[in-house]
Amino acid sequence: QVQLVESGGGLVQAGGSLRLSCAASGRTFNNYAMGWFRQAPGKEREFVAAISNSTRFTYTYYADSVKGRFAISRDHAKNTVYLQMNSLKPEDTAIYYCVAYPRGLSNYRNYDPSNYWGQGTQVNVSS
What is the pLDDT of residue 52? Predict the structure, then answer.
């Protein structure tokens, strides 16, 4: 099992940037594909971005709503995955959750509570 702790959330004006971090504990971090979801008030948790676990070939996936603005990356040596968020919009306001996929990326866009989840970090974007 892996424990995930997110950080980097906060309040930013529209058009600004934030970088979220997700620190993973455990020696098996490199075995897991990783990702980010978000949940706005009154809405379901939705997929944001995912990254493969390979150290040779990195594959990334994005929701259409963030493509071109957000970038996911990971540092295997630091057991950390990042989400760089640029050109933020008020509709990006949500709690952002880090996720580890123990069964790979076959259903990465779907919310699966049996994956490993962090506690979330709040992102607020003001207009």
Answer: 95
